[in-house]
Known about the structure:
The chain has 5 helices and 3 strands. The model has no long low-confidence stretch (mean pLDDT 84). The chain is mainly α. It folds into 2 domains: 63 residues, no CATH class; 40 residues, no CATH class. Strands 2-1-3 form a 3-stranded antiparallel beta sheet, with helices on one face.
Amino acid sequence: MSRLAEFRALExxxxxxxxxxxxxxxxxxLKREFEFEGxxxxxxxxYQFGLSDILxxxxxxxxxxxxxxxxxxPLRRFRARQCKYYRNPYTGEMVEAKSTLNKxxxxxxxxxxxxxxxxxxxxxx
Length: 125
């Protein structure tokens, strides 16, 4: 691979990751996790504990719970389909869909083409 082709491939990858990062930044679950982490750190500072202290406490609890019986988890037969988030770069509109049968996605596919719309997708875990 030539250096120019490698450069362009990396540039394309960087643009894709920036787009994915912009989706993740607006995720309400991420905001809740940041809020929880901040409150947890404040609480640890208030009681003068560190993360190692909490892990040590948690480790003791885990050893005790090894001996207790718990019922087996039920097996899932089918995996749930993941939600994909599509962001139209021309209008900034976002759509959450599990398949391409979504009405808005269908309109976008007619207007911009199927392959173009597929490139707009990101998956949040």
